[in-house]
Amino acid sequence: MLAFFLIILGLVGAFLPALPGPPVSWLGLLAAFFSASASLSFATVAVSFVVMTAVTAMDYLLPPAMTRKFGGSRAGGIGATVGLVAGLFLPLPVLGVILCPFFGAFIFEFLNSPDDTARAFNSAWGAFIGFLLGTGAKAAVAVSFFWILVLNLVKGWF
Length: 158
Known about the structure:
Elements: H1 2-13, H2 21-34, H3 42-69, H4 74-87, H5 93-112, H6 117-157
C-alpha cells in the first residue's frame, strides 16, 4: 500500500514543482522491493534509479538550456522559474503551472532587454518547451514506475 501511495504521489509531483515526482515514485518502487507482496528484482530497482536520476537532472537542466537555445538569457530562465512557482497559487493551478513559466520568462526577458520583444517571446517559448519536455519526461517515468509495480504484482497473482 505504501508503494502505491508513493508512486501516485510521485505522479502528482511530476506536475507540481514543489514535489519531486520521479524520486518519490522511485521510493515507491523501493518500498515494493522490500515488501513481501512484490518480487521486484534488484536490477529493476537499480535501472529505475538510474532513469530517475537522469530525468530529475534533465528536469533542472532542460528549461534553462531551451531558454538559451531559443535566444534567451539567464533572466528568462529565472522568470520561467518564478512563473512556475506563481502559477501554483492561481485558482486553476494546473493551467497556471503550464502558462505562467511562459509569461514569467517573457516578462523577465523583456525587463532585461525592453527594446527586444522578439527575443523575449523566443525566450519565453523556449522556457515553455523546456518545461513541457521536462514535465512530460517526469510524468512518463512516474507512469512507467506505476506499471512496473502493477505488472509485478499481477505476475505474482498467477
